[in-house]
Specification:
0% helix, 6-stranded antiparallel beta sheet
């Protein structure tokens, strides 16, 4: 929406612009899934999951052929909606990853998800519909 305008005597003319997200999130999409086969088939619209990587060292997260390299020290969260990586204490760990968050989104239909050996992975799929 861009056609909202108001005139005030103190400020003058004010114009506000809003960007809306038309999606509704599916309740089950907020659960943690450790069995990747439960999230690899997306019945809904494109979604922006949160990946929870646990382990130590360097690894690679691969989703539909798109790779993101990371360095984890215990736990690393990759939030593909906010495009930020953080640890359990909510400290920014963007310097610990290399790659594009958009490639980690789950597409409608079949997806493939894998992580390097030595790491475990859980997914909060954030399934959503229009």
């Amino acid at each position: 929406m861009t056609e909202i305008e108001r005139v005030t005597p103190q400020i003058g003319r004010v114009k506000a612009e809003f960007t809306l997200d038309p999606h509704t999130y599916v309740v089950a999409g907020k659960w943690h899934y450790q069995d990747l086969s439960e999230v690899e088939y997306n019945l809904y619209a494109e979604c922006c999951p949160i990946y929870l990587v646990s382990g130590n060292g360097s690894g690679i997260l691969t989703v539909n052929g798109h790779q993101v390299s990371f360095i984890a020290s215990g736990f690393l969260y990759l939030d593909t909606d906010k495009e930020i990586a953080y640890d359990r204490e909510n400290r920014n760990r963007n310097a610990s990853i290399s790659g594009q968050y958009k490639g980690l989104r789950l597409q409608p239909g079949q997806n493939s998800i894998s992580v390097s050996d030595g790491f475990s992975l859980a997914v909060i799929p954030n399934w959503r519909v229009l």
